[in-house]
Each structure stands twice: as C-alpha cells, then as structure tokens.
Amino acid sequence: MGLGQALIMPLFFASNALYPVDMMPSALQLFALLNPLTYSVDAIRGLMISGELNNLAIDLLAILAFDVVVFVLASLSFRKIIE
Prior knowledge:
Layout: H1 2-13, H2 26-34, H3 36-50, H4 56-82
Helix pairs in contact: 3-4
C-alpha cells in the first residue's frame, strides 16, 4: 500500500487535478503532459462537471497509449521472471 501511495501522490500533484497545467512551471508542464492522470482528470471533469467533450478523444487516446506501453513493459518483465 505504501508503494502505491509513493507512485500515486507525485502523479496526482503533477496532474491538472489541483492546478491548471498553464499555471505550472515549464518543467512541470512537460511532466504533466506525460502524466496519464492529467488525461484521466480532464476526461472525468469533461464528462461529469463541465460537459465539454472537445478533448475527450485525445484524453482517451492518451490513456490507451499509456495502458499499451505499460502492458508491453509488464509482459516483457513477466517473461523475464518466468525464464
């Protein structure tokens, strides 16, 4: 549980959940654009709060791309463990 929190908390604070990405320093903006939680928060905010669905396709594609990359890395790692 501690490991999960150690991963989730930096991702949460570096997403757009608390502050808009435009207000962040440039280095943190780059990290926020690579952060999958930014796109999750944006999609949920658009679906549940604002009703703005302009970026929904981009958000879903970014989440899907992150999932595919993590799945491939996990599969390769698991394959090495089994051998």
